[in-house]
Amino acid sequence: MTSLAEIWPPFGLTLTTPRLTVRPILDDDIPAAVDAARSGIHEPGKSPFSMPWAEMPDTELAPNMAQWYWRCRANFTPDSWTLLLAVWHDEQFLGVQDLGAKNFKTLKTVSTGSWLKQSIQGQGFGKEMRAAVVSFAFDYLGAEVAESEAAAWNQQSLGVSSSLGYEPNGIHRDGWGEKVEEVQRVRLTPATFKRPDWTLKVQGHEELKKYLKL
User: Could you tell me the pTM of the whole model?
Assistant: First the structure.
């Protein structure tokens, strides 16, 4: 029987770290993602996201999340793509790490974003999952730059970036929901990357590279 990964190669990607399994979100994973988000991601009224989606009522949050996962798959092309990766630890869904790019063949630049449920924050999982995707981008896709950003007050996210070697890359003002935020951009290259003391295990990357025409 034909597998999902044969139909859509991104589904075949798996990144493995000492504690985590990071792989694309399947439809069967969506209920676990919704439950994780409903359990709480951040303090009330202190959204770290440009769109405060985690503050939606439960009845709106679930369909919004599902539609977002489906939309990213539907809009996935070699020229513009976003991988939404489920983060698992001991069969527990912890959150989502994304990796995306536009015009990657020319720019060789990726961007990242993520969230973790609040109950497991502060245990180093955020750093480990970010290290996994930037290692994958640099070592398997040939990326030359990895970019990210966070609200200037979000020292937890910016601390993860700094610990991995990201350097400040300018501040801009942006409208996040109904608020104006000072947003700190950060930038990482293979030369500045503070690599972890473990080796990333990767499966399914060759098929993904072919799909991305790399």
Answer: 0.94
pLDDT at 207 over 90: yes
Distance CA 31, CA 14 (A): 20
Nearest-angstrom CA–CA distance, 24 and 150 = 23
Residues 153-173: tens digit of each pLDDT: 889 999 999 999 999 999 999
Q: Which long-range contacts link 133-137 to residues 24+ away (Cβ below 8 Å)?
A: 133/15, 133/22, 133/85, 133/97, 133/99, 134/110, 134/164, 134/188, 134/193, 135/193, 135/195, 135/196, 135/200, 136/15, 136/99, 136/200, 136/202, 136/205, 137/99, 137/110
